């Protein structure tokens, strides 16, 4: 029998229902060849086999980000942009100082920022066109809202991007205008926001940005990530960089005005593959433009973001437009992933999904709903019956939980925000996500938030919506891989699958509610049996003991605690 390249012993969390835990696993040529007891892998150890004993740590499947934006985050967190997200800068005055400092440094070159959030950075100035022009009189200035669903731009930015009062609104997006019809320096939704970034970076700078992004994902324990706003114009460049990718990418192309794509479903390989089409049904709760059946509250928070009293938000498309888009792609074999936060928007897109499934039945379609903050129990049941799956942005509770309840929707609706428990109760397979860079990629914290639902104040939002630790782990590994048609190769530690793994310094099943150490656990990521990155914030992965081979192939040590 051939010897393995790698053998790991200790606590193995497989996320395989047939065998949830094991004592050892073996890897050959990047694939798992054995999972079981120590005795099961003894004969696979040879003189050149690398062996790792985990001590008090554990190994589990590499985390999967079901709703990410790595190709965009590579730019947003590069040196060309200034990161002003609330996770980076908490105070409004510090945000303004950062903006003025970068404008001074860049001058006519232009200054770009990501992360403006007046709900968490209270006291920010109103970003009127006059303020934007006064702040940056010599060059373009673009400030993207933390949600990514809105941006503010000065007159210089409008000019260099060819925007005038006569510029038509992109489909599903809009430019703000004053009473006279002139641009007012606001862009709402993705088509309008992206139109401001044409001159932000040079193509020659992008490879280094993408490599840095991959390293960032690996440090979080991620080995697979979706790109949920894929621009096919990036395709040739990303393909050139595929050998540098240390995460597996699954892309969802943005639906275009022409409602067609040059790609074919499943195009690509296990490293880089296009699997679906993305639509934004509505916007962000923190901008005020999600499609609700009930009104936003009238509070200081909603007035800060410009919500008209009594407003139920809005949709980006009519039902007829959504029907046209979905029917253009789905019959050709594409999976659809629809961003939708408001419950009225959920009703609309479920109607559209039901219609297209009736007209074009498909047994294993895995149609997706993204975020679903205000989705109702009856809608979750309907979705499950249609075979629709949800990816849930539960990390919003960690950052905006108090704002959702006190500032936007009230306790009855706010406490049920991101109802992961109700989703799982229907039998639906769900995923958890961070939507980075909206919140930092942190799957371990996601697991903790899904289990505890603790808001910044310490209150628990809807304890009935809490997941078990095992459910949350599955929603960050196997089930997001399933959502992206990759569960046959990753997502669990099973024989035949790639050895995409994360080694943790602590077992995530052992955390205490409301005081989880998981978000600070050291980790090391592996893709196809090769170490690709580590995070040493909590002692890194110094716990596991590594050695090469053994004097006797059958002598596999018991747990060693360094």
- CATH architecture label of the largest domain: Alpha-Beta Barrel
Number of domains: 3
Return the CATH class of the largest domain. Alpha Beta
Cα gyration radius (Å)? 24 Å
Q: How helix-rich are the residues, as a percent range?
A: 25-40%
Number of strand segments: 22
Region (Disordered): 511-562
Biased composition (Basic residues): 511-527
Protein name: Amidohydrolase 3 domain-containing protein
Domain Amidohydrolase: 50-530
Summed up, what is this model?
The protein is an alpha/beta fold and 562 residues long. The protein has helices at residues 38-41, 70-76, 92-106, 129-135, 155-160, 190-194, 206-219, 235-240, 300-304, 319-329, 343-359, 377-386, 396-414, 420-425, 443-452, 469-474, 478-483; strands spanning 6-13, 21-28, 31-36, 50-61, 63-65, 81-83, 111-116, 141-145, 150-153, 174-177, 183-188, 222-230, 248-254, 272-280, 335-340, 368-371, 389-392, 431-432, 501-504, 523-527, 530-535, 545-548. Residues 511-562 are annotated as: Disordered.
